[in-house]
Amino acid sequence: MTNTAIGTEIPGYRAGTWVIDPTHSEVAFSIRHIMISKVKGKFERFDATFVTTENPLDSSVTASAEVASVNTNEPNRDAHLRTGDFFEAETHPTIDFVSTGVRLDGGDFKVDGDLTIRGITKPVTFDFEFGGFGGDPYGNYKAGATAKTVINREDFGLLYNAALETGGVLLGDKVTITLELQAALQQ
Questions:
Q1: 173 CB-near residues (< 8 Å, 6+ apart)
Q2: Calpha distance 60→127 (Å, rounded)
Q3: What is the pTM of this model?
Q4: Beta strand 8-9 pairing with 94-105
Q5: Which of 62, 76, 106, 126 gives 20 to 30 Å between its CA and that of 165?
Q6: pLDDT of the chain along its 187 residues, tens only?
Q7: Residues 13, 55 contacting (CB under 8 angstroms)
Q8: Rounded to whole angstroms, what are the CA distances from 73 to 21, 50, 62, 82?
């Protein structure tokens, strides 16, 4: 599809409502740990709906991840992340994103929106890259994409940290959020 409103071609693009396929998607994050490496994690349970329009720049997305499903492959750390030191899962059971706009920056798509973590909402921008469109063996029409942003965790009230005996701190402030997305067009 060539869309004159954006002046770029998106092969296979279709307008409609798309629902995330959680078995072929991932909501992941990484953060600097003890100042020398990165720890990665993901949320096992999440949901998202995309509404694409004839003009891709008028499209929208709403998404949510269940905090209790956090998985860093270390059960004690995951339990700590669910506490008041971090996400406070009992009071704030989800992390939510609602887009406020889609735009082109050069030739790259950006998705602006409001991210809510621990009851605090801040604007963020995801770099958005279409992976493509196509049919699966079951007759579903699918879209794939990758989205990525970097946030400062302290902006969302995630303040826990600890000083290291060797200098520095246990956790970095910047968190990279990476979304690998596959969604199905609803009939």
A1: 152, 153, 154
A2: 14
A3: 0.91
A4: unpaired
A5: 76
A6: 445 455 567 889 999 999 999 999 999 999 987 777 789 999 999 999 999 999 999 999 999 999 999 999 999 999 999 999 999 999 999 999 999 999 999 889 999 999 999 999 999 999 999 899 999 999 999 999 999 999 999 999 988 887 878 777 677 889 999 999 999 999 6
A7: no
A8: 23, 30, 27, 14
